[in-house]
Structures are given as C-alpha cells and as structure tokens.
Amino acid sequence: MNERDLTPDESNKIKVRLAARTLLVFITLCFLLVTCAGANSTMELKVGVYPNEPLISQDQNGTAIGLYAEILESVASKEGWDLNYVPGTLEQCYQMLDNDSIDIIPAVPYIQTEQHYILTSEAPYTDWGIVYTYKGSGISSMNDLSGKRIAHVNDIFYENFNASPGNSNISYSFISAGSYIEIFELLENKETDAGIVSRSYGEVYENQFDLEKIPFVISPTDMVFALSENTDPEIAKQIDADIALMIRENGTIHYMQENIDTSKNEESLSTWESPSWLKFSVGIGGGLLLIFVILSITLKNKVEEKTYELNSKNRELEVEIRERKIVEEKLKQYSLELKDSNELKDLFTDILRHDLINPATVIKGYVEFLIEVENEPRKKEAMEAIERNNNKLIELIENAAHLAKLDNMDDMTFETLDLKEIIEEVINHLMPKFEEKNMTINFNPSGNYPADVNTTIEDVFSNLISNAIKYSPSGTSINIDIKDIDDTWEITISDEGEGIPDKDKPFVFDRFKRVHKVNIKGTGLGLAIVKRIVDLHEGSVEVFDRTDREGTTFKVTLQKTKV
C-alpha cells in the first residue's frame, strides 16, 4: 500500500504517530544528556586565601600553597569538590565569609566564642606566637621589654599579647608591620627592639636572619577551617573525617586508608530498558550525537584530571625545593654550631626547666582558680580551653627537658630493685585511668625479679602502660608478663587496640615522629624517652603485633642482677 492508497484520516493518523515518536526520541536524548551532565557535575566551593605563610598563601602565579592548601586540595580531590580561591587579608576573608561571598577560610585560630562560624574540630597544626629580638639587644625575658619598641601584624598573637592582664602595667611602643618578613627586616636593621611572629613562619625563615628568640610562648592555638554558617555543615564533618585519615610525610599529604568499597555504588547502578522501536530510532537518529557527547565529556574529564595532576606535581616540586633550601641552610648552621652542641643542650635544658616551666605552672594555678569561681558558661569554656592547652605545653616542656637530660648522659648509677614492685607501683598510680575506661589489668607475678636498674626505669613502664590505656577501647584488658630468659628478664605489655601498621613500626621510637593519625594527642616524645632509658640500661625494646588477637605488644629486655 502506498501513500496514494491511504484515506485522508489514515494519512493523518500515521503523521501523528511519526511526530509522537520523533518527539519521544528528542525527549529521551535530552534526558540522557542532562543525566550525563549531572553525573559529572561537582560542588563548587569558594575558599578565602590570606597571607599566613607557610600554612596558607599564594605564589606569584596566584596558586594557593601551604600545608592547609595541600590538605584542602587532597580532601577536594577525594570528595569531588571544585575549589575556587579568592585572595584577601584575613579581615577581608572574614567579611566575605559573613556575607557568603566565600564558603571556607583555611588555617584560622580555633576560637569557640565565635559561634556564627562553623569551625572544624580536627586541628592539623597548633600555632603560637614567638617574640624575636636582634642579637646583642640585651633582651632575654619579658621583663626586659618594658619601654621597648615591639613590631607586630594584626593577628591573634598580637591581640592576646596586648590584651594580657599581666602587660597592663608595662609600657610598650608598638610598631605596626605589613607582614612577618617586614618584622624580621626591621629587627635586622635594628629599627625595632622586638617583634611578634607566628611559630610556623619563624621555624621556616628565622635562619635567614641574625636574630634571637625570647623564651616566651604566646597563645598556643589550634589552626582549623572556618565555614560560613550558611554552608552545609556536612562539609565541615567531611573535612574532619578526611583529616583524621591523613598523614604528612616528606612534605606530601597521604591517606592512611586507600581501599574504598565501591560495591554498593556498583549495585545501585541500574539500566534503562527501552522499547525496540525506540532503540532503533535512537540508534539511527541519535547514536552519532550520543557518541560525540560521551567522547566530549570523557575527554574533558581526562583533561581536567591531567591538569590537576600536573598542578599537584608542580606544587609538590615547589614545596620540595623550598624544603631543600631550608634543609641546606640548617645544615650550614648546624656545621657551625656542632662544636658547641653540648653547651647549647645544657642551656636549652636549663631554659626548659626554669624559664618556661615556671610561668606555665603559674598559669595553671591561676586558671584552675578562675575555673572554680567562674559561673558564666562561655567564660568558663574559654578558661578550660586555656587550661587544656597549658597542660599540653607543660607536658611538652617536661618531656623535652627529660629527654634532653637523658641525651647528655653517657651512663647512670644502678641499684638492685625488684621489677615486680616497680610495675605494681606504676599500676597503682595509673589505677584511676583504668577505672575511667572500665579496663582490667592482668599482672600475676610469681616470685621476685631482681635487676640492676636506675630509678628512671619506672618511666619506661609508666609510658608503655599509659599508651596501652590510651589506645585501647573501653572495657578491654591489658596483659603484663615477666619471663625468665637466660640472663635477662623479658617484660611484655600487650593491649587490645587497633595495632600499629608494619610500615610504621620502625619509626615508633623516633622523637616527634607521628606515625598515627594527625588527631592523636601527645607530645611525640614518650617512646623516644623509653628507648633512651632502655639503651642506657644496655637493654632492648621492641614492638610487634599480638598473635592471639588484635592489639600491640611492647617487649622490654633487661639484664638480671649480676651475682
């Protein structure tokens, strides 16, 4: 039958059906295109960047650099975010955050009173203010600053220093500078007597100038990310979750867990089954268009991926070059100071024992008193934050002084002591911590275990048992055993924690080496102290996984009393 054999009604019906099918094919193509475009869309976040080198800043090309830029780039890559950096001063960034012009500011102080921002809880870095002066200035303590010129930038360290009640009766002459590097230049030219600089900046650039530090710490502050109150709170939670899985080694951010289960996503994928006539129509009329769209999207994603990889490599190379220059400068400085190293160690230890621990202890006493008498919740919360950071500072000072003293010792005096009695005394001292986590301790010695040891051996067992408590879940047990092996005693301390990865075990006794997650509390000196004390006893300390269950075992080997 040809078109001439059709009646007008039949011809009209055929035209309507053809038009309907053509419209359906067009709608289907539009739906597929929208679906493909939506599947590849990403969340765009505007990030404020202000000069706070080396934590966050921009290079000459306008690229965000620094520790916090690396962390945020790593999180964004993992979560599929598109970051758009907006430069400005810190004050301008806060203003943009208030009016929702940006979503995030990296590397800002954790100030709990500013509740109109969303602050992340994970702190990759703790910063504080340091006071510098030029060599030969005659300034060696805070009391010497009375009537002196002090250079500063408008940061939290200057604000807290200026607002300190202890400084209200001391006259200072403040000089406002535009940057930390300008402060160092003013000091080198003796155009100011002292300057307040952040610890993070000073550690990188102080060796480029002939300056001295005053043993004084200003406002230790956790540096976090601030988000607009209108930003999705889940973004802050995701940043915290990703930071908790990060580790920073050799200037590069890594994730400690790379295995991601994608089976659920694969199971959730479904296919759309169309009628046979529509498949034929799409294949003939829209196949070439779909292929072109898919290839375009694929190529676009590949280009973006390769561009991101190249930018990441460039940033890594810039960081590596900068760090190598810093290392070279430090090596030159160390070679000049090597002859006087023992004298400098003694001086540093004395400063830790006296000039640092005394004011920190005074702060502790006053803060404890103020917490007891303060009734206003916001002020009490701020004081508790001061107390918490001050306690961390005291612990760091005490451990550093202890380790410095041990490093200067070549030998020590020994006496015959019973290891059983030493361990039992440590357990009794730590019993409140056991009860707090509802944990049990299994230590059933039989007989006596005499060994020629120094009283510092108690610090070894105190550190190891405290760590076992800290890294074990509530309600678990800690097992302690002493074995008689030839001429030695082998003491093992086993916990039921998550264990230590094999790649990290060789480094657990290195000082300041953080082989755990970035949010683990501690000074990074405890196991270094353990290793040094055991070495002075001509013993050994090892770490390995438990064989009977998940957990970690530390083994200390000590010589028996010589008959």
UniProtKB/TrEMBL annotation:
InterPro entries: BphY/WalK/GraS-like, HATPase_C_sf, HATPase_dom, His_kinase_dom, HisK_dim/P_dom, HisK_dim/P_sf, Sig_transdc_His_kin-like_C, Solute-binding_3/MltF_N. One of its GO terms (molecular function) is phosphorelay response regulator activity. Residues 351-562 form the Histidine kinase domain. It is an enzyme of class 2 (transferase). Keywords: ATP-binding, Coiled coil, Kinase, Nucleotide-binding, Phosphoprotein, Transferase, Two-component regulatory system. Residues 300-344 form a coiled coil. CDD domains: HATPase (cd00075), HisKA (cd00082). Gene3D superfamilies: 1.10.287.130, Histidine kinase-like ATPase, C-terminal domain (3.30.565.10), Periplasmic binding protein-like II (3.40.190.10). This is histidine kinase. It comes from Methanolobus sediminis.
